[in-house]
Amino acid sequence: MFLFIASEIMLFGAFFTAYFFVRVAAHTPWPTSGHELPVFVAGMNTIILVTSSFTVHWALQAIKRGNRAGLQAGLTLTFLLGLTFLLTQIREYSRLGFAPYTDAFGTVFYCLTGLHGAHVLVGLLLLLAAAIRSYRGHFTAEAHHGVEIPGIYWHFVDVMWIVVYTTVYIL
Amino acid sequence: MPNPLRSEAEAFRFLLGAVVYFAAIAIAGVINTWAGIVVFIVLSAIVLWWWFRSREHRVPPQIAPGSRSAPGERRILVVANETVGGSELLDCIRQLSEGVRSNVFVVSPALNTPLRHLASDEGPARAEAQDRLERSLARLKQEDIQARGEVGDGDPLQAIEDALRTFGADEIVISTHPEGRSNWLERGVVTGARERFMVPIHHVVVDLEREA
Lengths: 171, 212
Known about the structure:
The complex is a heterodimer of chains A (171) and B (212).
Chain A: H1 2-26, H2 39-64, H3 68-95, H4 104-135, H5 145-170
Chain B: H1 8-31, H2 33-56, E1 73-79, H3 87-97, E2 101-109, H4 114-118, H5 123-142, E3 147-152, H6 156-166, E4 171-176, H7 183-186, H8 189-196, E5 201-205, H9 208-211
Parallel strand pairs in B: 1-2, 1-4, 2-3, 4-5
């Protein structure tokens, strides 16, 4: 898992390098003119995603105490929150007013947020599988590896979004 | 290499730290760009200082693999480099196997030089370890001890931890050269294993020179 996360960090690192290169090379105020980013909506989305980390943590703590209902509720909530984040991001894309081919800013913006969105999608599939398994009676207080691994991955996805949001939307 | 995010709980704490770190930088950066840079530098320095400090004082969590043995079975994990054919080790395995059905698993750590390790040049070390393992298994077979094994991490403690995850163990046997000639003893491998693994650990000293 560590090697996987390390490789993912390198992947995101390559995209961040491209982002900062474009930003520094632009020699103009950032974002460049004609690009208004929905900072507030993305901020709300950030809160939703961070909240989903709390719910997946709650789910795992619940099954560690043998509380299956807590596990099911936690995983379901996490999945719904993640889905809300993804749908909101797709909705945001349709309202931005620029496309990946518009200019360098558009390309790097869609690449970074799109890469993250793809990771959210993978995380959602993992969470869905874990949630279905939890409803089918899988996982116990002793054996819950199938929740722990998606949990670690989901926290990683959240951390990467915090980095993306801070650098792309705020700073 | 040990995983810095061993569990979901650690990853969750890491996330909380990231939220605080980036929120502080973002707030300061929005107020004033230079304030943001200062906060970034100060927080990064604090994080690095804390990280190095915690590495110095880190006591690895104890690992209790839990028994996977069938009734009447005893799982014995043997960790040895060149010493696996030593009579003391074979006696120890026989002793542990008395009255039970033993399931012996040999780990042969891929011992490497620091330079080759840094260069990720593990090939020759793994090939040598594989060769040692095959000779070891053949030697055990000669003694009517049925065993299987695998090549492990170059760090013997990490090799044990990896083997415990797949094999589990009721007993761990660490075989070393005598004091003064044993690199493992010098590095405190046996003491480290006793601190780290909640499994009975037997230390066997094999003096191959005397046996020869």
